[in-house]
Amino acid sequence: MSRDRLTLGWGRRTAGAAFAASTVGIVLHQTTRIFTADYRVWPLLLAAAATTIVALLMSSAPAAGRVLALAVMSIAGAAAAIFAADGTFPDDLIRAPLRGISDVVGTVWPSPPLAAGAGAIALIGCLCAGAAVDLAVRRNPGTALLPSLALIGLVAMLSAPGGPPPAWSVAAYVVAALGVLGSRTFAYRSTVTSLFAAVVVVTALSIPVVLAGQLEAERYDPRLEIVPPVEPRSGISPLARLDEWRSLTPARQLFATTLPTPARWRLVGLTRYDGRTWLPAADYRRAGSVLAQPDPALATTTIGVEIGELDAAWLPTFDRTLSVSQTTLIDGGRSGLLAATEPVAGTTYELQLQPLSVNPAQLAAARITAADSPFIDGFELSPQLRELATSITVGARTDLQRAEMIASYLRDEFVLDIDSPPGHSIAVLELFVDRSRRGRDEQFVATYGLLAAAVGLPVRIAVGFESVAAPGRAGTIALSDRAIAWPEVEFESFGWMPFDPVPSQVNDGSPALGDGAIAPTEDPTEQRPPTTCPTPPTTTPPSPTPPTGSPTRP
């Protein structure tokens, strides 16, 4: 065999290997769509490139040598990714192939860059890079695309909530794939080579146009099939703790913030009702520091928080939270930040926030999000309450009007009575609605939640605190006697909007309708019921300027 033919053969194999490795590298770059913004992709890309070079150099070695070299490089790549993610050795290196992918699936998207998860992605990526090179050199070039296609499936599933990949990455992959398939022609200068290059260019330019609609198809997310990795523990519903916090004498400082103005802080949103109490969400998963992507049109601000005597598992939040400096778990509805380690006095953290900007005219035309019923454990609302909710909202032309009408009905037709017995079981609430028509704010907001859910509004009950100016220094503090609850309804493009069904002050007059007894203190279903408050494994925004007819409390 002539030297020229040997040179051409080596050039053809090298070109095919380079294009095959490129297909894997393009897909690996898209792993940034799996993780939060603090994920470091460069160790993965460098490890894949190093594996590519070693695989090419070992292409003429016996099979055992090639396999050993690929295994060593893949383990080294996983170690580099684990090191970049601040992991521990050898624990995370051992965990990566065994539990790394399940660690990623067990978190909320975008996933925090957990060391074992990042290591598993790097291990798989290096194996795919080495296999692609080996197939391109020793087999039919078409088989060299199989590793990258398998990797595409994995990345697509793990990044499913993020939607389709950018069109440029699809175009780049197609160009590289065509390069693999046409690598045999690249060793020769001919008209065929020129025509093939023209086809590659035209294909790359047409990809974004041809696939624009197809990329928007619904995507399978394996996270929906996984039971959240949290252990429930018994506790009291935060809504039932309002009186406990308010009764502390003297009032306790629960937390302090660097926010210069008083505001309403959310502790947690309660998303489920079982007939006895409103409960927190049950789908908490570990989250990264980045919780949401900022709106480039809005300013961001950073607020510091220091926990005082707040004895709760959640971290208080405010406005639209973009990131948090503590390790937390969050639920799918972003109703609260559950601390990975229960906070104690002196715990500090920072929140990066983006103030909500609400245009009343746009909110008036906004539609609600798809609503899942909050009722669980077989609880069903009585026909009487459903009929009441329907009658209250008769004539409403928008979702906002329905939400406002329920709040106005409770404010106008019921009496705020701080001496009423506490509780919000269905027995207490039915007596509140049908007979006494007077009660605590706890009953007002809990009833709003039932009526709103009855007409299909996506509703939750927020529990939190109103902060006040810190005496003698900058910032604000939240005191125990400023505990508060309010309902929220979720609108598309706006998120959760607060409503206030509670009269602005105590009314000592008679109820507008009904003269029955107030809710009994000895309700058999109201015995401080235990709740399922998720436990880790080892903010409310200030109310937007409300539309007419839905004032919020100061």
Number of DSSP helices? 14
Tell me the number of structural domains.
2
* Low-pLDDT ranges: 1-8, 207-216, 510-554
Radius of gyration: 29 Å
Structural class comes to alpha+beta
Number of distinct beta strands: 17
Terminal residue distance: 89 Å
Question: If you had to describe this structure to a student in words, what would you say it looks like?
Answer:
The chain has 554 residues and is of the alpha+beta class. It has two domains: 3-225, no CATH class; 231-251 and 260-283 and 365-535, Roll (C8orf32 fold), CATH 3.10.620. The protein is built from 14 helices and 17 strands. It has helices at 3-29, 42-57, 63-84, 91-105, 115-138, 146-158, 167-181, 191-210, 242-246, 360-365, 383-392, 399-413, 426-436, 441-454, and strands at 231-233, 253-257, 264-273, 278-280, 285-287, 301-307, 314-315, 320-324, 328-330, 337-339, 348-354, 415-416, 438-439, 459-469, 476-491, 495-498, 533-535. The strands form four sheets. Strands 2, 3, 4, 6, 8, 11, 14, 15 and 16 form a nine-stranded antiparallel beta sheet that branches. Strands 5-9-10-7 form a four-stranded antiparallel beta sheet, with no helix packed on it. Strands 1-17 form a two-stranded antiparallel ribbon. Helix 3 (63-84) runs antiparallel to helix 5, helix 5 (115-138) packs antiparallel against helix 6 and helix 7 (167-181) packs antiparallel against helix 8 (191-210). The longest helix is centred in the first third of the chain and has 27 residues, at 3-29. The radius of gyration is 29 Å and the shape is elongated. The termini are far apart.
